[in-house]
Amino acid sequence: MKTIIGLEVHVQLSTATKLFCGCSTDYRDDEPNTHCCPICLGLPGALPRLNVRAVEHGLKVAKALNMEVLEESEFARKNYFYPDLPKGYQITQYDKPLAVAGTVEIEDDEGHEKIVRISRIHLEEDPGRLIHVASGSGYSLVDYNRSGIPLLEIVTEPDLRSPQEARRFLNRLRAILEYLEVFDGDREGGLRVDANISLEGSERVEVKNISSYKGVEKALTFEVTRQRNLLRRGQKVGRETRHFMEARGITTSARSKEEEQDYRYFTEPDLRPFRVADLVTGIELPELPTARKERFMAEYGISLNHARTLTGDPRLADFYEEVAYVDPFLAATWVADTLLGELNYRGMRITDVPANRFIELLALIRSGTITDTVAVQVLREMLDACAAGRPCEPPAVIVKREGLVRGEGEEFADVIRDVIAANPQAVADYRAGKKGALNFLVGQVMKETRGRADPRELGRIVAEYIDTGEV
Ligand SMILES: Nc1ncnc2c1ncn2[C@@H]1O[C@H](COP(=O)(O)OP(=O)(O)OP(=O)(O)O)[C@@H](O)[C@H]1O
Ligand SMILES: [Mg+2]
Ligand SMILES: [Mg+2]
């Protein structure tokens, strides 16, 4: 049964002021209702004025997604009554969005390139935020600091075929948005998704307002199973809106009354239609992830996989380019395969890593001063220091203090003899032709020498000792 998925992604655009007034969008650490004015509070008589920066951001996205920009665009009122929206309507766009018919390239589940079509993008204002204090308290709080924050809604065609694909699409989209500098990925609630999903031949279900990529994948995975089970039991999947309960990883049916209202869309009379076609000519794009990925492969000679990983986040790509000169191949391996994992494990970001220290570490590896095993230990010490807010010592200092300089094989002769003597069974196994036994013995020597010897060299020496009976 084919799974059909389409996403509506709401992106908070990074502008200094709100979409229709001069209130600052940077309310993060401020008291509720301190970034409001008559316009974003929707007081009678207040007139909205369009923030051109938000339009420019939207048009950057339109260009980056290869979209067709409309000649003229306009705003519309979407009427509904809810306390998060004091005017009684949201200013959004309806039949004249900014742009239509775009594309985003992702990898499908088989690893092949695949095109996801984008139907449209449009601007709209965010409503306020309701805080439900406690059930039974009889009241809720409302914060209008967010009311009027510019959002860009990006709607895909139903081209996605699995929850994993949906997640890859979102990662790709986020990378593009971050490259364009129209979006701050670290901001809470910066990207919210309505995920539409159906199984071929059935109605679509829309899971509203999911606030993380992992959440989207989880909600969709849950829906695939739920809908399959319904059909298996001979029941039907009805067209409905559902909510995702992040903590439990399930979706629940929303009251159907709320969604079936008629929004009575009509043109916003307080804002004039605007000519996007004129604005788009002045927009220039930076290098985007795909172009940067190809440049990394050509310029640094690194693999497609490494290039793809390293360009997935502009700050990661910047970091790589800063350290690559030491040795592009070595740097790619250490950043993409080792550093990222260690950062993930500690909940750290690439911007937390001092590039100069990492360059020094790469130089120690490249010159053969330390083994890979030791390098990982040193890297961990460096990251632990950064994570704890301590100064990050130069790796050479750590290596010296802890005596971790690479040893030559002969230096470990005694250790090797001891290990061989202590493990007669492994020695016998090796003599009987078992390759694994040698690895075991090498591992024992590595342990005793705290990784200071090169495992390949050790393998050769241990084998030689046994073969020549030099023990
Ligand atoms: N059969 C389907 N299965 C899954 N997704 C679908 C299917 N048909 C359409 N979709 C997706 O549903 C979404 C429809 O979004 P759109 O904004 O156009 O309308 P809406 O959800 O009805 O309105 P609203 O914006 O008020 O939520 C698109 O992302 C589209 O790809
Ligand atoms: Mg929509
Ligand atoms: Mg929808």
Automatic annotation (TrEMBL):
GO molecular function, one term: ATP binding
Chain's role: Allows the formation of correctly charged Asn-tRNA(Asn) or Gln-tRNA(Gln) through the transamidation of misacylated Asp-tRNA(Asn) or Glu-tRNA(Gln) in organisms which lack either or both of asparaginyl-tRNA or glutaminyl-tRNA synthetases. The reaction takes place in the presence of glutamine and ATP through an activated phospho-Asp-tRNA(Asn) or phospho-Glu-tRNA(Gln).
Subunit structure: Heterotrimer of A, B and C subunits.
EC number(s) on file: 6.3.5.-
Catalysed reactions listed for this entry: L-glutamyl-tRNA(Gln) + L-glutamine + ATP + H2O = L-glutaminyl-tRNA(Gln) + L-glutamate + ADP + phosphate + H(+); L-aspartyl-tRNA(Asn) + L-glutamine + ATP + H2O = L-asparaginyl-tRNA(Asn) + L-glutamate + ADP + phosphate + 2 H(+)
Keywords linked to the UniProt accession: ATP-binding, Ligase, Nucleotide-binding, Protein biosynthesis
SUPFAM superfamilies membership: GatB/YqeY motif, Glutamine synthetase/guanido kinase
Domain Asn/Gln amidotransferase: 318-466
Biological process, per Gene Ontology: glutaminyl-tRNAGln biosynthesis via transamidation; translation
Family: Belongs to the GatB/GatE family. GatB subfamily.
InterPro entries found in the cross-reference section: Asn/Gln-tRNA_amidoTrfase_suB/E, Asn/Gln-tRNA_Trfase_suB/E_cat, Asn/Gln_amidotransferase, Asn/Gln_tRNA_amidoTrase-B-like, GatB, GatB_C_1, GatB_Yqey_C_2, Gln-tRNA_amidoTrfase_suB_CS
Name of the protein this chain belongs to: Aspartyl/glutamyl-tRNA(Asn/Gln) amidotransferase subunit B
